[in-house]
Amino acid sequence: MKLALLVIDMQNVFLQEDKDRYNVGTACEYINHVAGLLREHGHVVIHVQDVEDAGTVTEEELDFIPEIYLDQRDLRLTKEKSNAFWDTQLERILVEQGVGLVVVAGFAAEHCVLFTYNGAMERGFKAAILQKGIVSSQPEAITATYRDRHVVSYPVIDYLVNHT
């Protein structure tokens, strides 16, 4: 079984002004670490980019924040809806890659991260939120996400990729 890390909306347009307040640096450390583990073992890393406002913001604003490392092996997916599965090829990509477990990280815990997590579950994938890998303007949304959804930590992912 392959794992996939979905890095949702870690873009300048959403995060550039509030990186410290949203604790973006810590989330990026966890995201980058898990992405590295997955790449090293042939699993899938997908960066999801929200382009809903593409006509009203610059390309630089739509780009991913520099704290998120993008590797040439990573896949990129654009979306216009909150759920990264809606009107995209995400499900097809995950099926073609043989993914069984989807780990969701990124921004915003109470919106696109949550809706994409739900979308994965609705399509029959096992899904979990990356512990310490989500960002929100509302700290209570992160707490609620960890309380109400499946969560996976990086040591568990490390174990899975090294022992399965």
From TrEMBL:
Keyword Iron: no
SUPFAM superfamilies in the record: Isochorismatase-like hydrolases
InterPro entries according to UniProt: Isochorismatase-like_dom (IPR000868), Isochorismatase-like_hydrls (IPR050272), Isochorismatase-like_sf (IPR036380)
GO MF term list: hydrolase activity
Domain of life, per lineage: Bacteria
Keyword Ligase in annotation: no
One Pfam family of this chain: Isochorismatase
CDD domains on file: cysteine_hydrolases
Segments forming domain Isochorismatase-like: 4-143
Keywords: Hydrolase
Record family assignment: Belongs to the isochorismatase family.
The protein's name in its UniProt record: Isochorismatase
